[in-house]
Amino acid sequence: MTFVVLESCIKCKYTDCVEVCPVDCFHAGPNYLVIDPEECIDCTLCEPECPVDAIVSEDDLREDQRHFLELNAELSKEWPVLTEKIDAPPDAAEWEDVADKLQYLER
Q1: Cβ distance 20 to 48 under 8 Å?
Q2: Domain span at residue 36?
Q3: CATH number of the domain encompassing residue 60
Q4: For residues 101 and 1, what is the distance between their CA atoms, to the nearest angstrom?
Q5: pLDDT tens digit string along 67-89?
């Protein structure tokens, strides 16, 4: 099992989760983080650290969220590993409550 980053991370990209990850499974894109399912050890440390509740267990994905498992796997192969907390985008707070953000994902 793995954890999955959902679309609520898009344009927020808070990296509190990265700091607690013991296996460096987070990868960073321009405006989104993903978890490499091959590296994640299901330690649960990242989930409570996310201020926008963007991280969930694979087992807790709703049917309409299942595509994020594949998206995380795909993008983790393309994007570099992030091992330290970085500053969130300056307008991150403005995006926290925005729904349907997948259209804003930058690859």
Answers
A1: no
A2: 3-80
A3: 3.30.70.20
A4: 25
A5: 999 999 999 999 999 999 999 99
